[in-house]
Amino acid sequence: MTTLDAPQRTVAWVAVCPLDALATERGAAALVPDGPALVQVAVFRLVDGRVLAVQQHDPFSDAHVLSRGIVGSRDVDGVEVPTVASPMYKQVFDLRTGVCLDVAGKQPVPGASADLRTWPVRVVDGTVEIGTVPTGVDAHGAGSIRAGVPGDGEVRP
Amino acid sequence: MHARHLLVVGGGMVAQRLVEALRDRDTAGAWHVTVLAEEPRRPYDRVALTSFFSGRSPEELALGDPALWDDPLVTLVRGDKAVAVDRAARSVTTASGRTFGYDHLVLATGSYAWVPPMEGADLPGVFVYRTLDDVAALRGYVHDLQAERSGPVRGVVLGGGLLGLEAAGALDALGARSTVLQVDTHLMSAQVDLGGGEALRRLINRIGIGVRTQAMTTRVHEHRRGGVGRVELADGTRMDAEVVVVAAGVRPRDELARDAGLTIGPRGGVVVDDTCLTDDPDVSAVGEVACIQGACIGLVAPGYTMAEITVDRLLGGVSAFPGADTATKLKLAGVDVASFGDAFARTPGALEIVWADPVAGVYKKLVLSDDARTLLGGVLVGDASAYASLRPMLGRELPGDPSAFLLPEGTGGAPDLELPDDAGVCSCNNVSAGQIRHAVTDEGCHDLGAVKACTRAGTSCGSCLPLVKKLMATELEKLGVTVSTALCEHFALSRAQLYDAVRVAGVRTFTEVVERFGTRAAGRGCDICKPAVASILATTAPAHVLDGERAAMQDTNDHVMANLQKDGSYSVVPRMAGGEVTPAGLIAIGEVARDFGLYTKITGGQRIDMFGARIDQLPLIWQRLVDAGFESGHAYGKSLRTVKSCVGSTWCRFGVQDSVALAVMLELRYRGLRSPHKIKLGVSGCARECAEARGKDVGVIATDKGWNVYVGGNGGFTPRHAKLLAEDLDTPTLVRTIDRFLLYYVRTADRLQRTAPWIEEVEGGLDGVRAVVMDDSLGIGADLDAQMARHVEDYEDEWRATLDDPEKLRRFASFVNAPDTPDPSLAYVAERGQVRPATAAERAAAERGEPVLVAGSTLEVRS
């Protein structure tokens, strides 16, 4: 995938783990700073080496479980999109954008968006780093997520 | 508005339908209904009485949703007989002396079995075939005779009609040798013609039942030791027989109406008009007791119609009786007979087309209008496969050459029938082809279960199901919904096809599977195909669930080998084979649960479940459990869950076999076996069935001679009782039978298809399964046996292997960058002395500092 334009806001990169700690096509949860608090992020390593991050909170079950979903792919208008399916009620999300591709007949819990927040990820010298200024689907940038693919991880082996 | 009172006398099938229809339609609650039933049980399926002998219990014969009788507007009075109607006072008195008033009265008293006048008809050993008590008594009598004598019990059935043949089949199923004595010239003379009757006789003979026609029984002789010994015919012949079943016909039970002064038909029955009203506007009669359009009709479908009409009229409708559909189909294993419409070609100018193959025992006849186009009726003996599609065509023009419908299958075949929308498909529930189409196109019913639930078609006798299925498939095709068996967008194959492909190709990883058998845009699979392929590989190329790529294919339950619960924590179920556990084991489990602050509960399958474990606690918990001698219970997998057992003969004073030992053996044999859905077994030590084995995918029930095995019992959305697969097996045969049954299911079922629907859809249904499993009709028996032997040999405890492997243990961390930090979102409150997940409101309260939580994510771990 393409390398995205550098986000306008300052990104503080936080190292979370060695790349080797992530099993291929499986997620892991990480705790990263979110302003003054800590937030749970689900980090996934794909079979092509990309690393992507979305929120760990599942908006459909209100449990923090998304890192435990099955990683796969789905054909969206002819494009093979990397996905994760929630282990709870099987909603499918685009791992690059956080967009919910299949609500599986359910509604998010009150106050939650069906789509997921995403975080920028990069791998530096074999270490996975997460950009702690959130981008992607949030109150500000929901309109531009598809074009920018902000969560797509740059990989520098 | 004050509810008016509807009183129904009689608790049979028609009464049931009437109450059901009333509760369905009377949404305003205008009527309160009371049903007076003479029998002590809820209304049951009398049409299916014969299946009582093939193992269906009285409970299974019960009709409809039991909740109907819990409705506050419905009262069922059982075991009390109505004895008098006072039309002036509008009340009915019962044998126990109770009086019930009514605003409207419905007589649904049905009919009784007619016993022809003959000497000896009251001897012990003479039975009628009418109620569950009748057939239970018959069964008991035959069993007692068999116990005290060596030769086969001989039985005769008086009457060669539908009921008589079914009674003969029942005697045969009980192991008695039976002969049918028919007064008329041929069998089923009310429905089929002489030619059909002759073909039928050959078929009946072939299954070992004797037939004598033009045989009038005049006397039953007593045996010197008491009971029936012999019957005597009008021509002087005498036949030895220890049991006599009278199925000579029925007579309406119209004595209540008679005593109440209502008009009675010339041959009995309460005379009613087309709206089912008697000559008293406050009294209706429905079903077999009603004499409608000049006749009493001994079939359930017209009775149902009368019930519906009565309800409609009570609610202000205007419907009227359209005339009876007298089509019948014999329910006797191995003998296919159907008759419908003008079977005797009584319509002026009617033409008959007959095709007969005496060698094969086939006789088929169509009755057509004088232009040889419109179908008027037919008789099918020996091969009634065309019945379901022909019957709805009654009174309609047949497409193409009518004779095409008579030829055996595979000789050109019958043209596809495009049924008109108003053609009746399910006569039991009065469902038309149009209603089924509507269910598919407008109600979104895209599988047989949904269509059945939505329309009720096929939910009574089930004979129309093949037609319902075909209509559904045609409709789906028209909608452009390919009735696709493809697993998902990544595989065009069905699970069964993929299973075979993977097994034959010998591939071992998802990457190989998706490259060889995936679609062009297969990508990396999804949450549907990955677990399915993982399940297939688990039995074709066994390996640890977390080995290599396998780890990425598992649902979270299999991935962490525990059950995901609603708050993201997991529960843990150690194996207790057969439900057996030592006191030391119980203490060990208790200590683990206490030390980790887990909520404990006994599961539905007799195991102990411990809830609230965090992902990072799972290895610690399992280390303790493994040390105490426990292994993984696989409660998380689509795999063998439990083998439930009762106490068995070692302790139980009634048990006839050691059900615990067998359950333990079976559970250890099949532990870890991955399958399309979870599977559960049960073993009961006697027919009291304390293990509820017939609610399991495989149920084993001990007999004095061995084990009976039942298959296809499921809980879930549509609970089913298991059906008898084989009887009196010794243990090795039993085990081989279950081995093959399970693996045949594993190989051929759809993803997430439980055994009950699988049996319905697999080639040949239950008989097909029996042929494969018992008679090795596909020649795969040895292969299945070998596969199961490998499974048993290769078993290793998944948790023990995981604890021994640091690489695998690394996955069990709450956070990859903070392995020792528990998930801060978890929170618990106390309830009944244990913890449960906090609700959203309780969490919010805790955030405001209110003291609701008993524990956050760090439950106290005591050492």
Automatic annotation (TrEMBL), chain A:
Keywords: 2Fe-2S, Iron, Iron-sulfur, Metal-binding, Nitrate assimilation, Oxidoreductase. The keyword Oxidoreductase applies. One of its GO terms (molecular function) is monooxygenase activity. Its EC number is 1.7.1.15. GO terms for biological process: nitrate assimilation. InterPro entries: NirD (IPR017881), Rieske-like_NirD (IPR012748), Rieske_2Fe-2S (IPR017941), Rieske_2Fe-2S_sf (IPR036922). Residues 13-130 form the Rieske domain. The keyword Oxidoreductase applies. PANTHER family: NITRITE REDUCTASE (NADH) SMALL SUBUNIT, PTHR40562. This is Nitrite reductase (NADH) small subunit. It comes from Cellulomonas oligotrophica. The lineage of its organism: Bacteria, Bacillati, Actinomycetota, Actinomycetes, Micrococcales.
UniProtKB/TrEMBL annotation, chain B:
Its cofactor is siroheme; [4Fe-4S] cluster; [2Fe-2S] cluster; FAD. This is assimilatory sulfite reductase (ferredoxin). Residues 637-774 form the Nitrite/sulphite reductase 4Fe-4S domain. Signal peptide: none annotated. Its EC number is 1.8.7.1. One of its GO terms (biological process) is energy derivation by oxidation of organic compounds. It comes from the Bacteria. The gene is nirB.
